[in-house]
Amino acid sequence: MARKNSLGDLELLVLLALVRLGPKAYGVTIAHEIETKGKRSVAIASVYLVLERLADKGLVKSELGEATPERGGRAKRYFQITAQGLREVRATRAALIGMWQGVPQLEGGTV
After folding, report:
1. What 3-state class would DSSP assign to 54?
2. pLDDT tens digit string along 20-61?
3. Distance from C-alpha of 23 to C-alpha of 103, rounded to nearest angstrom
4. Residue ranges of domains in the chain
5. Closest by alpha carbon to 61, among 85, 29, 43?
């Protein structure tokens, strides 16, 4: 049965970063996690666009933190994955594993 909404690759990476970082994830830490663990360069603006799209889908939620002097009195927006977001990540993982299995070219060989 086909799923209505599937995750794009950057959406999946952002959600995975949120899972890894926990409740105090914000744009810069999310981008850094994707760059270090995902080995992929990402613009901070792209991260925020994806976060907005994921929030519209109900896959992430956010809250505003305290204002800090280091940020000129501005507050950080912290993001968390929702239960629905976690279900989507798990469903995407299952789909990718299903597609990956049984493909000899991807089974540890070199091409």
Report:
1. helix
2. 999 889 999 999 999 999 999 999 999 999 999 999 999 999
3. 37
4. 9-95
5. 85
Q: Tokens representing 96?
A: 């990718």
Please report the pLDDT score of residue 2 as a whole number: 52
- Which burial class, exposed, middle or buried, applies to 47 when counting CB atoms under 10 A from its CB (0-12, 13-18, 19+)? buried
Q: What angle do CA 99, 7, 50 make, to 5 degrees?
A: 150
Query: Which residue, 68, 71, 14, is CA-closest to 43?
Result: 14
Fold of 9-95: Arc Repressor Mutant, subunit A (1.10.10)
Contacts for 70 with CB less than 8 Å, ≥ 6 apart = none
Q: How many CA atoms lie within 13 A of 63 on its CB side?
A: 7
Which residue carries 């990956």 as its tokens?
100
Give the sign of the dihedral formed by CA 69, CA 70, CA 74, CA 79.
negative
Band (pLDDT 50/70/90 cuts) for residue 109 is low
